[in-house]
Design goal:
The protein has an eight-stranded mixed β-sheet with strand order 6-10-11-18-17-16-15-14, sandwiched between helices. Strands 1-2-3-5-4 form a five-stranded mixed barrel. The chain has a three-stranded antiparallel β-sheet with strand order 7-9-8, with no helix packed on it. The chain has 14 helices and 18 strands. It is α+β, with helices and mostly antiparallel strands.
Amino acid sequence: MSDQPADPSQANPSQADPAPAQGEAPTDHGAVPFSPPGRYVTTGMLADVQALVAADGRPHEEVAADGAPEATDRVAGRVMLWRHMGKRLFGTLQDGTGRMQVSLFRDEMDPDTYRALAKGVRMGDFVGVEGYRYITGKGEPTLGAREVTVLQRALEPMPDKWAGVHDADLRYRKRYLDLLVNPESRQRFQVRSAMISFIRRWLDDQGFMEVETPMLTAAASGAAARPFSTHHNALDRDFFLRISPETYLKRVVAGGFDRVYEIGRNFRNEGIDASHLQEFTMLEWYAAYWDYTDNMEAIRTLLTATLEATTGSTTVDHDGVALEFGVQWPVYDYRTLVRDATGIDLAVVRDVDTLKAEITSRGIADDLGDTVSYAALVDLLYKRTVRPGLVQPCFLIHHPAELVPLARRNDDDPSVLDMFQVVVAGWEIVKAYSELVDPIEQEQRLLEQVELRAAGDDETMMMEDDFIEAMRHGMPPMSGLGLGIDRLVALATGAPTLRDVVLFPLLREAPGDSAQAPGDATPAVGDADDAN
């Protein structure tokens, strides 16, 4: 049997039964008796059994010379290939661990059963195979079937198994097909899972405790963003999907747990582009008695360790650029970068009207509209002129104090914050700062946010009286940090957009599909608060 192909797709097409055309129902399905079992016991996952076969499998001639081979293993999976060539048939099964080849020989089973299986099993079906181990002439570990059980039929045809699913809209809407036929997509989600697991272990080892805080909140706070709102029927009260868990995590620290973290969903009702989604996964942690410099060292250590553990390297390729995380990252002053890029010195230009005039006169933007917030203008200026040029991992520090009302001002220069961002490839992946724990100052800064909201800025934070009360009971010095999990995974896996690392991203309603959630795959009209 030395001429057996390791990949049966390379066999002479004239010897094989063609698979059904795309969109064509498998007309011979009825040839195999079928009653789906509720359970099928296997001896291992496909990758495990394949490793056993590779370790002790022998050529088929040697196995057959000993008489009728006895079954040694039972496997199950989805059929990704099923072709018979005269007196033999080769198939490929797939499960969550990978793919494995199986074979059927007409001389080793009832001829009628062989013919029924050859014609009645189609791509996409789930089958169980009980068989013996051997190695093909081309070195492929294979399970020779003694018994095949059809576990479930696929009534819809599989995508073309060689072309894969390459249409982006189809991949996002029917992710199950994308995962079935695109190994690169499966790999991305395996890396994502491994990263989250590693981050959890790392934080646990550092003495952090994982907690959960509300998704439905009475006030939208913790970030500058427009919220989603909903109505709670039983309480007859409006709530918001959280834009950040920050103020609740700080309450937990005030309650006596010094180091806490949460990995969960946040929601921001804003535009979508390659680096922004309206529903996204964030890691946030808070450590009592730390300041922002402690978090700078912690996050660099965590990110390099995470990449090394999950991708095998601290260098990742993103859009053809090698991003190197395993070195000391440069530290840049926020206002200095803006001044060098635009000529506008934010240490001097401190009010809305003057900044608007500077931005307009220099041709940086002419669509400022009714912008009433100095923070919003500074953010726009930075994102249009500075951020796109920050490619290699770097720290940005000392942002203008107006940008984050929850952050602590710098002792030496109160016009800036004890704060940093980590920017890579023009994406912000981390935001962190020393926390403001003075309840008097915090209340005043939130009241300023309320005034800006009343003036028309709908991305400002809302007042949280309960949070202020918690602060009045005493809150220790601390530093918090937010890490965008989706962005980190996209950078690590070379994904061009966050939709490629989120299993089921929101999309615009498909034609004729009223059940699809609204959304848009076009560039954002507005920009979202970063690190999502």
